[in-house]
Amino acid sequence: MTRPDSSSATASPNFFRRLLTEPTVHFLFIAAALFAFYSLTESSRGKILEIDQNAIDARVFMRELETGEALAATQRDAIIQSYIEEQILVQEALALGLDDDARIHDLLAQKMRHVLSGDVIQPTDSELQSFYQQNQALYERPAALSVDELVFNSREELPDNIRSALQEGADAEALLALQEGNSAPLNNVTRLDLANIFSPTFADRVFAADNNAWTGPHLSNRGQHWLRITERLPASIPPLEAIRDRVRLEWIAIEEERRLESEIQQLKAQYSIIVGSGTADE
């Protein structure tokens, strides 16, 4: 009867001992453990979204072209976050069965925004009153004037008798009897209105003038303009009932945006973001 070779009996334990001390084996064990941990982590995280770094760089570049200067870190971060949110919304839109077309990703993201904020919301009376009280500065009506506008057809220096009549506050009819032109009232015009119609400097001159005193001239292709204040309307805040619909619509817009942002952040939490180079092996 043949006895087993004693060297063979000891070879197996010695082999495993050498295997356990081999650095390569240690590396394989660590890699396997890390892979298992990563797999568990990613499975609990849920969805994975791969972001194209080239696409982000292109958006940053286009914004810098628009502004003519390098973007600050906070501005770049805002562009990145906006792009990530857009891509998340695209993925959610596709999951809902909306059309997949690379040319309309912006539209898909916008569609998804409408889906997320689809509920029609309305403020209660107390919410509306509170919103109005907290945002009264938004509804303040600026100071305004009612003025008579007198336009002489000529851009030339006026004769002394007409200038004297202007300084004395003569009526427009009396002045037009001395020089060809026309007149008309301008009611409830603000400083901004006058600045847009004439110029900011002339608007300031008119607002600083005394009532019933002619201010001018402002030259245009129509001739020369003179304005006289007939009534001053101080800045005021209209009561809620007078602008209820406007306040309600602004409350809805802000509330919808707040709820939409909350929904987007909840969706965003379901994704792991991977930024890649945007290149693929052919």
Write a structural description.
This protein has 282 residues and is α+β, with helices and mostly antiparallel strands. The chain folds into 2 domains: 39-139 and 242-282, no CATH class; 141-233, Chitinase A, domain 3, CATH 3.10.50. It is 55% helix and 17% strand. It has helices spanning 6-20, 23-45, 53-67, 73-95, 105-116, 125-134, 136-139, 160-167, 172-176, 191-197, 200-208, 244-268; strands at residues 47-52, 144-152, 181-190, 214-220, 223-233, 271-276. The strands form 2 sheets. It has a 4-stranded antiparallel β-sheet. A two-stranded parallel ribbon has the order 1-6. Strand 4 (214-220) and strand 5 form a beta hairpin. Helix 4 (73-95) packs across helix 12. The longest helix has 25 residues, at 244-268. The radius of gyration is 37 Å and the shape is elongated.
| Beta-strand percent range | 15-25%
Regarding quaternary structure, what we see is: single chain
Count of beta strands = 6
The N- and C-terminal alpha carbons lie at a distance of 65 Å
Based on Cα principal axes, name the global outline: elongated
Low-confidence stretches: 6-11
Overall number of structural domains: 2
Order of helices and strands: HHEHHHHHEHHEHHEEHE
Q: What share of residues is helical?
A: 55-70%
Helix-and-strand structural type: alpha+beta
Radius of gyration: 37 Å
Largest sheet: 4 strands, antiparallel
**Average predicted confidence as pLDDT:** 81
Record keyword descriptors for this entry.
282 residues; Chitinase A, domain 3; 17% strand; alpha+beta; two-stranded parallel ribbon; 2 domains; 12 helices
